[in-house]
Write a structure and sequence with these properties.
By secondary structure, this protein is an alpha/beta fold. It has a domain of 221 residues: Rossmann fold (3-Layer(aba) Sandwich). The protein is built from twelve helices and twelve strands. A six-stranded parallel beta sheet has the order 2-1-3-4-5-9, sandwiched between helices. Strands 6, 8, 10 and 12 form a four-stranded mixed beta sheet that branches. A two-stranded parallel sheet has the order 7-11. It starts with 9 loop residues before the first strand and ends with a helix. 48% of the residues are buried. The structure holds guanosine-5'-diphosphate (GDP). Guanosine-5'-diphosphate binds next to α3, α6 and β7.
Length: 327
């Protein structure tokens, strides 16, 4: 049984992004047709007054908070002020306004980088704030931790039902394929593709190739998010609203690969025959980042799409949208 009625008024903040657009597709596919979407031109989520007025006027019942400033290791390192300010401000505005407007449930999207750099692997929800963060994305992680603590604080003080999911590295159709600012998976799809077309002898992969990462296909993130939002009241309360239990749950595939293995998979899918060269002058970031997904499994959800399958879908989308990607 779904908790949210098909006619429910649902606001997806950040519906133009990778995560938000997948959530909108998933909702529409499930028959939700009363979606509230506002483009950047209509609603600036950094503007506190505008966000408050929007909630007061539109009265959404449910909110998916998928709006965020995101990027890969280089972007996080280059724009730390923007990552901290924009994420803190957007989530502060949306969460506070959701409370003022009496939103029934809100789902905040976090990130697996909230966990300590050297957390035991796989990382459990209870590992939060047990050690130092990975410096290359600390500002982003601090903002995401503040966001989920804000959900928790509002639940404790005001009795709201604001919960969160912590997705692992996401990828898929609609991703950002920027050569420097994107995440590793889309960056390598583009680099291998362009190297194949140019007949280039080698492709540069940043870092040592040894860091281990877990990837989740974006449609599965959307499916898992909808699953959490639709949990019945007793399950939601029992698992996510009993402070000091965490108000969030990990969302991952439970499978990790090295950056080298990832690069080999992408090379095969793209059909590039040249060699891989690792550029050790670029940062590796966290050595390992695997989520413990047993809490979601216990609730009844798990990921199914393999990395190979997801990379194939993403490359097919890239080829269909190549002009847009380059734009
Ligand atoms: P992270 O998970 O926060 O470290 O985010 P990224 O997706 O940006 O990087 C993951 C790993 O892939 C890091 O070890 C990077 O050094 C490595 N990597 C290899 N080539 C690239 C690339 O072209 N772009 C990015 N962003 N990372 C790369």
């Amino acid at each position: 049984m779904n908790f949210m009625k098909k006619s429910a008024r649902i606001f997806v903040a950040g519906h133009g992004g990778l995560a938000g657009s997948a959530i909108v597709s998933r909702l529409r596919g499930a028959g939700y047709d009363n979606l509230l979407l506002a483009g950047r031109g209509e609603l600036d989520l950094l503007d506190q007054g505008a966000v408050r007025a929007f909630f007061a006027a539109e009265r959404p019942e449910y909110v998916f908070l998928a709006a965020a400033k995101v990027g890969g290791i280089h972007a996080n390192n280059t724009y730390p002020a923007e990552f901290l300010y924009e994420n803190l401000t957007i989530q502060g505005n949306v969460i506070h306004s959701a409370w003022l407007a009496g939103v029934r449930r809100l789902l905040f999207l976090g990130s697996s980088c909230i966990y300590p750099r050297l957390a035991p692997q796989p990382m459990k929800e209870t590992d939060l704030l047990t050690g130092e963060l990975e410096p290359t994305n600390e500002p982003y992680a601090i903002a995401k931790i503040a966001g989920l603590k804000m959900c928790e604080a509002y639940n404790r003080q005001y009795g709201t039902r604001f919960v969160a999911v912590m997705p692992t590295n996401l990828y898929g159709p609609g991703d950002n394929f920027h050569p420097e600012n994107s995440h590793v998976l889309p960056a390598l799809i583009r680099r291998f593709h362009e190297a194949r077309l140019a007949g280039a002898p080698e492709v540069i992969v940043w870092g040592s190739g040894t860091p281990l990462r877990e990837f989740l296909y974006i449609d599965e993130m959307a499916d898992g998010s909808l699953f959490v939002m639709n949990l019945d009241e007793a399950t939601l309360a029992g698992h996510l609203l009993r402070y000091p239990k965490p108000c969030f749950v990990n969302l991952g595939s439970g499978v990790e690969v090295s950056i080298r293995q990832l690069a080999e998979t992408i090379r095969e899918v793209v059909g590039y025959g040249g060699k891989l060269t690792f550029d050790a002058s670029k940062p590796d970031g966290a050595p390992r980042k695997l989520l413990d997904v047993s809490a979601m499994k216990a609730l009844g959800w798990e990921a199914k799409v393999s990395l190979r399958q997801g990379v194939e879908e993403t490359y097919a989308w890239f080829l269909r949208n190549i002009e847009r990607v380059r734009g």
